[in-house]
Design goal:
There is one protein chain. Helix 2 crosses helix 4. By secondary structure, the protein is of the alpha+beta class. The protein contains 5 helices and 3 strands; from the N terminus they run H-H-E-H-H-E-E-H. It has one domain: Winged helix-like DNA-binding domain superfamily/Winged helix DNA-binding domain (Arc Repressor Mutant, subunit A). The protein is 54% helix and 14% strand. It is elongated, with a radius of gyration of 15 Å.
C-alpha cells in the first residue's frame, strides 16, 4: 500500500500508463509515432481501424502524457513524448538494478 499521498499519486500514474499501453492498438500507434510523427489520418491508413477509432486512442494517449500534438496548418501531427514514460522507467529501474537503457 502507498504510505503517502505522493506515493499514491505515483502509483496511480504508473497504473494509468500500464492501462494505456495495455491495449494492443495503442501500443502499435505509440510504436509508429516513435518512428515518425503523423496525423490521425496517416495512422488510420496504416491500421485496420477507422480514423475515428485512431483519434479516440490518440486522445487517451495524449491525456496520459504519452503523445503530444502540434498543428501543421489544419492538421494535428502527433509525436511521442519520451518524458511521458518517466514514471514507468523509474518503476522498472527499481527491479532491474537501474540498468535499463
Amino acid at each position: 500500500m502507498a504510505k503517502s499521498h505522493a506515493q499514491a499519486a505515483r502509483l496511480t500514474q504508473l497504473l494509468r500508463l500500464f492501462a494505456m499501453l495495455g491495449h494492443p492498438l495503442r501500443v502499435v500507434i505509440f510504436q509508429r509515432l516513435a518512428r515518425v510523427p503523423m496525423s490521425a489520418g496517416e495512422l488510420a491508413r496504416t491500421l485496420p481501424v477507422t480514423r475515428t477509432a485512431v483519434v479516440q486512442h490518440l486522445k487517451l494517449l495524449e491525456s496520459a502524457g504519452l503523445v503530444a500534438a502540434s498543428f501543421q496548418g489544419r492538421r494535428r501531427i502527433y509525436r511521442v513524448r519520451p518524458r511521458g514514460l518517466a514514471p514507468l522507467r523509474s518503476w522498472l529501474s527499481r527491479y532491474s538494478g537501474g540498468e535499463l537503457g
